[in-house]
Write the structure tokens for this entry.
Amino acid sequence: MKRAKIIVRLTSLFLAALLIFPSLSSLNPSSDNSRVHAQSLLAVQTPSLPTITREEQQAWDLLMDDIGNPFGVAGVMGNLWAESGVMPVSYEGYYAGSEAHAVAIAITEGVDNGSISRYAFAHSYDGYGIAGFTYYTLKQGLYDYAKEHGYSIGNLACQIRYLLLYVRTYLPDLYDYLKTTRSAYDAGLKFMKEFERPAVLRNIRGSYASIYLNDFAEAGWYREDTKWWYLNENGTVCADQWANVGNKWYHFDEDGFMQTGWLKSGDSWYYLTNYGSMATGWKAIGGTWYYFGSSGKMQTGWIKAGNNWYCLDENGQMYTGWTKSGNDWYYLNASGVMHTGWKKDGSKWYFLNDSGRMQIGWKWISGSWYYFNPTGAMVTGSQTINGTDYQFSASGELKS
């Protein structure tokens, strides 16, 4: 996805920039100078339109490391673009253009070398930094965080980590939303309303967020707590559907989370492993064996797997031992394989033909006659059958 639609990005950002004034979040509503600042802010130009900058990539990576959800991260990025063009050394206030950049550098150097105090930095009405930090408590926190961790106040990692710390601590519901949302557009609007809170709310920030999702989000697996979901190449989430990922099939619920365990889809049952992949072939589940076809459907009845025949009950469980199917009896060994030929069970002998059916009555086997009683057991010794006396050897052959 990355850079795949860079022309679309540039065009979208350019058109979006034409529709919005820069954020007015640096206004202090209680200040007598608010109107003056509002007027000056209208003259601030929208930042130049980059392709994908190093600062954008670094900001995205830092946010992803913490939030882990590309939709939520894109929502934050859309706002950072609107505030500063995703530039940590930036100024939002009375000055504009090159003068604003010079002021941003002077503020950064002044805080770093101590010539600008904590009070002076925090209580100016001007926005500073990647998120346009304006309110004095926010700027105090940023100042303290930079000093405590040995950062320059203009360091991008410093500002992103402080931003995340602030949101986690003071806006936990927003933080949780960013980790779970499936809409970059909505995330952009929610972050604008709950964190940035500009004087003029502009839906264009949601559009910015959608652009960032398109440019930066990598297709692949994402984890939310203990659950997994998958982002397609086109930026959509697999939901309420089957999806082939890496030549394996997975099923996702209506919320987009990968499913595991038993799944009924249509009239058929499937089993999804602990890793989510659809089971095929033999699978032991809860100590019982099941067989799933190449399409993943659980099989019932008689199946041939390899060179052997097996029988599965109506719940898909593999039979072993003596099993009645229709009007006939079969014997399935401990591995479930249908037995043919002679079978000794206890002290009795049975014979199962090439189709596995237990034989009863007279049978010609390997040049000799044998007789199997109604239970299928081979007879020996003296026997009266249908009013006629017969003699059978100890191994069951009829004596002449």
Notes: The mean pLDDT is 88. The radius of gyration is 37 Å. The chain is about 35% helix and 25% strand.
